[in-house]
Amino acid sequence: MRRTGWMVGVFLLGAALLGIVIYPLPMSFLPEGPFASLAGRALFVLLLAAGMCLYRIGRGPTAADRIVAVDILGILIVGFCAILSISTGRSWYMDIGIAWALQSFISTLALAKYLEGRGFEE
Amino acid sequence: MSHVLGWVFITIGLAFDLFGCLGLVRFPDVYNRLQAATKCVTLGTCSILFGTFLIAGFDAAGIKALLAILFLMLTAPVAAHAIARGAHRSGIALWPGSVVDRYAEDRERDAEHKVGQE
Predict the structure, then answer these.
(1) Which of A35, A42, B22, B59 is found 20 to 30 A from A59 (Cα to Cα)?
(2) How is chain B split into domains, by residue range?
(3) What is the pLDDT of residues B29-75, one digit of tens each?
């Protein structure tokens, strides 16, 4: 039973990756540039990883699991902004990435402090 | 040439991100999941940002990518350490197959030392 679930998971992941590499869905907000098709594939891989993080946020048995998954989701969004900035040629996407990383760091520290159960006064 | 190298770096980073999140789904424990997920930051996203720098060159986007790499390298280990410490102090149990728990041993020894001093 457990082995069957493992094989189903490997099949689903491989099928999703093959589908992304062979036939990516069109992303209408990307302009027709030199990197449009490569960037579309990269964004779909990041979306797959973000879906795994969302699964862990919904399922996670403890609060610490959810905090780890939220942290990683923020980091994935920084990578998303980097790929958007090179494929559209607009450098202010990197500003969004830097600001997101800073805010994600501070919120993760606050949540870890809350998890420790000592309040915010220290 | 530097475009090709940049896309190679971005592909490496995407692979690390994907497998880090796979570890986040598959591993049995908070600490194991954290250990898989931290690779996703330093090797995955920093590699994507370095590829962005190689493609964009020394213009606004490239310099901002270098700044983001510096910031992530400084802050991500601190955040992971804080999460692990908070999880251990809030009493989340380790996976039953775990071999050793040095932090609990250290805290026990510190408590004994304090009692002996008094």
Answers:
(1) A42
(2) 2-117
(3) 889 999 988 888 888 999 999 999 999 889 888 999 999 999 999 99
Q: What's the domain count of chain A?
A: 1
User: Would A122 be classed as within a structural domain?
Assistant: no
Q: How far is A17 from chain B (nearest CA, A)?
A: 10
Check if B109 contacts A (Cβ < 8 Å). no
Distance CA A8, CA B37 (A): 23
Phi, psi of B94 (to 5 degrees): -75, 165
In a domain, A121, yes or no: no
CB distance A68–B86 less than 8 Å? no
Taking only the tens place, the pLDDT of each residue in A71-101 is 999 999 999 999 999 888 888 999 999 999 9
Q: Report the predicted TM-score, pTM, of the whole model to 2 decimal places.
A: 0.86
Q: Quick check: is A39 in a domain?
A: yes
